Amino acid sequence: MRTLFICMGILLSSCTEMIELQTNDTDPVLVVYGSVTTEPSYQTIEISRSAPYFKNDSNLQISDAKVTIESTDGKQVWKLKELARKKGVYQTERKVAGIVGLTYNLRIAYDFNNDGADEMYNASTTIKEPFHIDSLKVNSMSVLGRHYYTINLFAQEPLGPDYYVSRFYINGGLATVMITWLMAFDDKLIDGKYLNGLLVYTFSDQNNQGEYDPNKVLFVQSGDTVAVEIDRVEKGYYDFITQCKSSVNGENPFFGGPPSNIVTNLTNGAVGYFAGYAPSRKSVIVP
């Protein structure tokens, strides 16, 4: 049984998360993480080789893979090129954008077992209709002498089962660079309802720094611009993020530990996830 440990960090200086996987298997596996979105950007895929869980080594980034992303209608075919300054990171050669409703196929060719022939790895993802945010509101509150800011969201939630992942930006920079800061949620309690001030997140005042673990709390101050991004995603990606968070936090408060068999949409024994989504983002200034 494969046991996985997953953590997130910053990929280059862009607004992209990075996944690292470690396994306790003797044999390493290919690790793939990336996405295609509707925002014009250098769509990015990272490829590495898993490290044994108990060795605490970083994954070995993989070079010289052949990577393409193609839409099912055949109108978009992108070859990704490895960045000279970042081994194992592959990007489109120009800024491109996915299209809502289309399915995108990721194909990777790489001689993983060094037998002289490339192994093939594939994944597919479909970009769903975006979730539309009407507005955001910041409320200030004090608890036990400490100051906090809540972010409340106003939006119509579509009817039918949906899954979401949210990200936060502070003054234009991605703040949710760790998996524990991402929010993955379904719409079981809000399906088809108008979200009239739904609490999205509680930020701690910058003056509270030193009192909280900076790896678990996000800080803002008056005058900061906070953006909330809500991504309507496939259930598989929702499950992936949820299970990744469980592997970091522990699935059970008494018997915590990395979960086994984290969901993936990669073939041929590879792990990780290839996601597609249409970001929806709104900003608000902290009063």
SSE map:
Elements: E1 4-10, E2 17-23, E3 30-37, E4 44-49, E5 51-52, E6 60-61, E7 66-71, E8 77-83, E9 86-92, E10 103-110, E11 119-126, E12 133-143, E13 146-156, E14 163-170, E15 173-174, E16 183-186, E17 194-205, E18 219-220, E19 225-233, H1 235-249, E20 271-277, E21 280-285
Parallel strand pairs: 2-5, 3-20, 17-18
Antiparallel strand pairs: 1-2, 3-4, 4-6, 4-9, 7-8, 7-10, 8-9, 10-11, 12-13, 13-17, 14-15, 14-16, 14-19, 19-21
Which tags fit this structure?
1 helix, about 290 residues, single chain, 5-stranded antiparallel β-sheet, disordered N terminus, about 5% helix
Explain this structure to me?
Helix content is 5%, strand content 49%. It has 287 residues and is mostly beta strands. Strands 3, 4, 6, 7, 8, 9, 10, 11 and 20 form a nine-stranded mixed sheet that branches. The chain is globular and about 65 Å long. Residues 1-16, 21-25 and 251-259 have low confidence and may be disordered.
